[in-house]
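Lab notebook, bench 4. We co-purified these components, and the gel suggests they stay together. Before we commit to crystallization screens, I want a quick structural picture of the whole thing.
Request: model the full complex, all chains together.
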Amino acid sequence: MIGVGKIKQYSNVLDKPLSKGKQEVSLSAFAFLFSELVQYNQTQVDNIAELERRLEDAGYAVGARVLELLCHRDKGNRRETRLLGILSFVHSTVWKVLFGKVADSLEKGTEHEDEYMISEKELLVNRFISIPKDMGTFNCGAFVAGIVRGVLDGAGFPAVVTAHFVPVEGQQRPRTTILIKFAEEVLRREARLG
Amino acid sequence: MAAIYSLYIINKSGGLIFYKDYGSSGRMDTNDSLRVASLWHSMHAISQQLSPISGCFGIELLQADTFDLHCFQSLTGYISLLFFFLSKKVTRMIQGTKFFVVCEPGTQHMEGLLKHIYELYTDYVLKNPFYEMEMPIRCELFDINLTQAIQKDRVALLAR
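Here is the predicted assembly.
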């Protein structure tokens, strides 16, 4: 038997180091699960705004947990306290764990001081989803927006987070932008900290 | 000259759920395309019954003077119909989603293309939460990827 000699025997299960586990899940399995999530929520609502809100709420619960997990695993039980710190944490660490890659871009809104945008050319949850014409600007990225809101809220940066389609020149498919609008108190605190 | 004239997808009860024309002679009348689809559905079912060997899944290739028709039946999502006569089982039929292309006579590698189209269908249609099973396919992503697949096939054909 190959490799048997390499495994150290632990008498107590608690002495065993925690394995990192499998880092990837099947994209198809996820796509079907997410599709069912959207379909189930669709049966529970009577307008699109409500559907968006429900997806966001589902994502919020994921975000809150992801923050806990990643602060513990990657940051040695510390969390970011500064605005740019938490934003780059979402943009790189959170994105990498959830989607296997860093988000395409993180920008500051040009019109408002309190707005930041995370853009993604092809959001993983939207990979197989075509929005019917009668649903207008609805974006299933609302789920991801919810995740971002969950992370930010848990870290003490309350914000309103929304997902939008933004057309790109020369491309058939629009990209998805996650718009983050921080609460006033966050910016006031940030200004005080200097 | 286009190698592929048209593509049809029919659901397991024989309704046309997707139709696209690639020929130069213009689009077929909607009623005609529906008729072709249901006609093919019935012929396919009858061929299963007429086959001299058991376990036949229906016609895969129909060759005519002016066109070839390649058909691919999906691997899953069958409905199995049992027919009884005087409470004795007389026949059993299997009906799945069928994909078929009408193309120039002698066009090669259509099985591969049909399999690829089936893959696109499972990805961009079945994983789309806004698609209702057995209903006409209106998915932007499916259209985009299908066009790319057909174009790629055409380029490959020219290179051959």
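The two ends of chain B are 14 Å apart (CA to CA). Worth comparing against the SEC data before the next meeting. The longest helix of chain B spans residues 30-50.
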